Structures are given as structure tokens and as C-alpha cells.
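Intended use. Records like the one below are meant for learning the mapping from a protein sequence to its folded structure. Do not use them to infer anything beyond what is encoded.
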Amino acid sequence: MTHPSQPNHHAEVVFLGTGTSVGVPVLGCDCDVCQSVNPRNHRMRCAIVLRRGAERLLVDTPPDLRTQLLRERIPLIHAVLFTHEHADHLFGLDDLRLFPFRLGHPVPLYCQRRVEERIRKSFDYAFVERKATHAGSVPQLTFSRIDDDPFEVLGIPVTPIPMKHGPNFDVLGFRFGDFAYCTDTNHIPPSSLERLRGVKTLVLGALRKTPHPTHFNLEQAIEVAHSVGAQQTFLTHLSHDLEYEETSKELPTGVALAYDGLRVVALLDC
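Structure written out for the chain above:
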């Protein structure tokens, strides 16, 4: 598949997955959503890719990563940015093994200290100081430490959005120009809301209709969307509690459910 080229100040955003940590359909579940034939009710674990020119920035490495990249015909990832270290956002990391052959260098990973520590522990075989049996036998990775300060990856300006994922767990959302991606959270502090002012497209986690201890539910996410005031808000990290067509009818103007394969454009120089 060919993609229309975007000017350097734009990026195409591809939603690789929009589902909760167990995905939808849920294993062993026979509810109407899990049995649905509507492809917009089929949700792999959350990730997005930003394509700027020929380069692609991946946000998170979910367990479904190989299938997602094949589905979207994305042949190469140039760098990876991590929101946090939970398994549904991390454990597809080994699928990066092929990319250093084409890049000519290890895959750059941008993450906080805590995420790097989890990667080094969970994928310890990639960091053992011994001779590899053959090229590509383990992921080739390099780390760039990030914090709350803005930075740049592949020419894309990135503003971290510090958030809470439950009372005692810190995660990051990210703003890329007029586009912001804020999954896995149930509290965005006032200072972080200020960093979202002026975004035109907001992506926000909304797990289900009933309250949850670590995620916004649908009502809470809509309240935050109204507070931010983006022209368009897409809800992600969706469980099987949210049937696509029925839920869409309930949403206010400017708020919609995201779905796997959705594409939007971000303006980077704003």
C-alpha cells in the first residue's frame, strides 16, 4: 500500500490498537460485542504510529505488535516512545528484532527510568554481555531517557503529559503539535491539562461505562474532553462494555470512539 506523502510539518497518525489490556474479543467471552462481526468492535492492545515523511515513530509495543504492523503494512519502525511499562504496552518489544538490519543501528527507545528498568529486567536476554549466536537473535536496542521536559524524536516535537494511572502510578501522555495521546489514566493534573490547551485532536482513554480505579470511564472521559476543548476527541483503550455503534449514538458532538486502523493527521509546528 502506498500512502500520500505528508509535508514535513505534518504527521499521519495510525491507530494500531484501541483495546483494553485483554483486547476485544475477550478470551472465553460470548457477549454481543465479543461475538460481533463489526470490525470496529475488534480491538487489539493500544499503540499508535506517527509517520513523518519516510520515518515512523511507534508509541508503545503491545503484544499484538507484529499482527498490527502487518495489517497496516508498516514495514519499518525508526524509534519507539513509551507511555509506561505495563505488559499490554510493552510485551511486543521482541518484534523489533528485524528492524536493526534495515536501520543499520539499534532501535532507539525513548522512555523514563522506570520503563527502562522494566525492559532490562523483562528482556534481560537482550542485554547479556555474551556473543550472540547469530545476527538478529536478540533485539538490538538503545535507550534515551526522558522526563517531563519537551524533546524531539525523528524531527517530531514531543511534549510529555504527566498523568496518574491509579493513585500511585505515574504514566505519560504525549503531545505532538496539535495532536495529543493520553491513554491509561484516571487523573490528569491541572499542570498537565495546561499542556493540552490548544490541541485540535485529543486521544483519551475511556475503559467502560462503570467506574474503574485506574482508568477514566466513559462519563469521566467526556468531561475531560469538554475541559480540554479539542475540536475532536477520540476515545481509546476500550473494553467490550462499549459496543461501537450503540455507544457512538450516545456521544456528544466532537467525541467519537477510535478504532483499529483509524488514521488522522497531526500538524506538528503549532
